[in-house]
Amino acid sequence: MTPDAPPTDAPLRIRTSDPAAAEPTARGERTGEAFRRVPPAAWPLLASVVLWIVIWLIAGRGLPGIAAGALDSSSILIVVGLGQLIVITTGNANIDLSIPSTMTLAAYVSAVALDGDAGRVPIAVAATIACGAAIGLVNALLIRLFDLPAIIATMAVAFILDSLSLRLSEELTTGIPPGISSVLASHTLGVLNLVWIAVAVSVAGAFVLARTTWGRCLSGIGQDRRVAFFAGYRWRAGEAAAFVASGVLAAVGGLLAGWDVGAEIGLGAPYLLSSVAVVVLGGTLITGGKSYVLGLWGGAVLLSLILTLVITMGLSTAYQNITQGVLILVILGISSRARRAA
Amino acid sequence: MSPTVQVRPPSSPASRVVTIAKAHARDSSSVVIASLALLVLIVWAATLNDRVLSYLGLSLLLQSSVVLVFAACSAAFVILIGDIDLGIGNFIGLANVVAAVHLATRPVVGVLLLVAMIAAYGALAVLIEAVQIPAIVATLGAAFVWFGLATLVLPQPGGAAPAWLSALLQSRPPLLPVAIWLALATGAVFHGVLFHTRTGLDLRALGSNRANLVRTGVSALRLRVVAYLVAGLLGVLAGIALTGITGGGNATGTAQYTLLAVGGVILGGGEFSGGRISVVGAVLGALSLAMVGSVVSLVGLSSVWQSAVVGVVLIVIVALRRVRQGLEQLLLRRQLSHQLAEERAMLEGGSR
Questions:
Q1: What is the pLDDT of residues A199-253, one digit of tens each?
Q2: Over 60: is that where the pLDDT of A8 sits?
Q3: What letters, b where the CB count within 10 A reaches 16 and e where it falls short, cover A262-290?
Q4: Residue A342 above 70 pLDDT?
Q5: Which residues from A are below 8 Å from B144, CB to CB?
Q6: A191 vs A60, A69, B121, CA distance in Å?
Q7: Would you tell me which residues 47-66 of chain A have a C-beta closer than 8 angstroms to some C-beta of chain B?
Q8: Which of residues 88-127 of B touch A (CB under 8 A)?
Q9: A173 falls within a domain
Q10: Which structural domain range is residue A329 located in?
Q11: pLDDT at residue B5 above 50?
Q12: What percent of chain B has pLDDT over 70?
């Protein structure tokens, strides 16, 4: 899964936070070598499998059932996480903090556009996607016009979107027609339709990132903007498109969540941290330039398996958050050690 | 200065003083913008309701700002060294529930737990520096842990604020409301730490030019731990203040402070490039953000728009700063070329 081979090695090295990092010791080099052979996306998948078997041993419930449950509950996170992944890949400390607010707003926009009528689905979907694209465009324009760090621009936009959601929640009088929710919640070939949507989105995402000019442009600007520029990539447009893509994917995620469980204020809130968590758990570099769409699945399934584990053991959900946090630190600790040694 | 021949063309001491003064002016003008924003908000509020400027009016208006002031200062110390803290909101929530559960009944346990939380922030710094986990990821993982611990300590909202805390926050010191005194004290103390101590100088250097600082033999690990300990202390203070204001603890609902704290730092002139933040600015920025809500309701806008106004204010302030920086650069470039021409003329005149 290396979408881009940098033209030369020396100037394209991803800068770690410590330029004066110590030389690896002989022992560190050897363990690093062993670590390096494992692709980063494999770590969360490996941890997921281990957790999967542990839950099976504790609960005695069927293995496929546990896996299906984990996939079901991570599908929306994967759609949304893909947007975050695309933005993070562009480097320059880019991150999209407007994702949760975009999701909430999209849930309301889609519900209002639907107006309780299942026949208006195409209109609602189009309106939601347009809304997400517009949000992404505003983010990108603010970043480019005022030369803002993405973190500030997307944060300011998120504040504005929160107000719009509150305003729309006053307008919303109709619920989601039961037909739509049941389509999302029904199974095709034994797999939840929501999961199929996530599969389709991530296959498309993986293809775009690995095989198209834009995908290569994203990794290129994530590794080194100047080199991407000299390589002839239109990096400004590429970066702007990344934010638009993130906005659209967040809107789609919000629409799915809204149609699945109903629109509510705070619908997107949990995704602020978890959308970043699945990206980094999956081995995508937070500094940009290298992305693993498959790792997204590993990360999301791992997070939801932790919830399953906590519930099976009859623990308070407090332990879910603690375990998720510790796992993020441990897995990232291992992989950054490996990178440093490599 | 070495006694060898000076290579650079000599510049007059006067022009050097002017340059230094300009650098100072540039650094403090961000603070000026933040305080102007605050002033505009206060005056605006005062024209809408003349009781705003009274002692009681200001007390009510700024009561809840104490938490945000501490939170913004905490974020300032993390942003200072070039990091970003995604966990501060949940950390404040944890401090809030620990204070609400223990401080009133078992003060010793409560204080020990709060100190342990500060130490945990120091440990986070070790993790970032020694294991080289990017700060954004480490604080993200920690955010989950803080939230989990908080729901473990207090699953349902409850607890109580110790009497001394409520008394302190409701006290009526002379001249200004207690919220303003606390903000002034916080700003003064941590401005002092940052700009008048050796460690403060090192911290700023760590943010702006890490490689050179490390070459002088300063331990980056020690400095990062210091910055995170200060950030943890301020986070704990924010949590304690929240306990005093709400009179209890609630594990959920403090996540908003993660973004608001960063907003305060940005409003106060902080830059993400590291090494360039102002504690006084962060305090003023936090006060402004806290005022926005009150002004929105005074203007008669629905409280729905409160958050949008915060967003717009952030964008406008940052945009203004960019425009100013652009103009400054233009002026500076013109001035430099002028100065160069003058000096060249002087040198040529001397050699003749």
A1: 889 999 888 888 888 888 888 888 888 888 887 788 888 889 999 999 999 999 9
A2: no
A3: ebeeebbbebbbbbbbbbbbbbbbbbbbb
A4: no
A5: 273, 277, 321-322, 324-325, 328
A6: 22, 10, 43
A7: none
A8: 127
A9: yes
A10: 39-341
A11: no
A12: 90
A315 is a domain residue: yes
Q: How many domains does chain A have?
A: 1
DSSP letter string, B252-289: SS-THHHHHHHHHHHHTT--TTSS---HHHHHHHHHHH
Q: Which of A212, A337, A205 is nearest to A278 (CA)?
A: A205
Residues of chain B neighbouring A92 (CB-CB closer than 8 A): none
Contact B134 A17 (CB under 8 A): yes
Q: Which residue of B has its CA nearest to A266?
A: B253
CA distances from B298 to B46, B61, B288 (A): 9, 11, 15
Q: pTM score, two decimals? A: 0.82
Chain A residues 251-270 with CB within 8 Å of chain B: 269
The answer to whether A223 and A14 have CB atoms below 8 angstroms apart is yes
Q: Is residue A31, in this structure, part of any structural domain at all?
A: no
Q: Is A316 within the bounds of a domain? A: yes
What element of type H or E holds A191?
A: strand A191-192
* Residues of B with Cβ-Cβ distance to A140 under 8 angstroms: none
Show me where the domains of chain B are located. 51-322
Provide CB contacts within 8 A for A23, sequence distance 6+: none
Residues of chain A found within 8 Å of residue B149, distances taken between Cβ atoms: 318, 322
Average pLDDT of chain A to the nearest whole number? 80
Does B317 lie at the interface with A, CB-CB under 8 angstroms? no
What is the model's pLDDT at position B267?
A: 85
Contacts by B172-179, CB closer than 8 A, 24 or more apart = B172/B55, B172/B59, B176/B55, B176/B58, B177/B55, B177/B58, B177/B59, B177/B62, B177/B63, B178/B59, B179/B59, B179/B62, B179/B63, B179/B65, B179/B66, B179/B69
Q: What is the CATH number of the domain that holds A44?
A: 1.10.3470
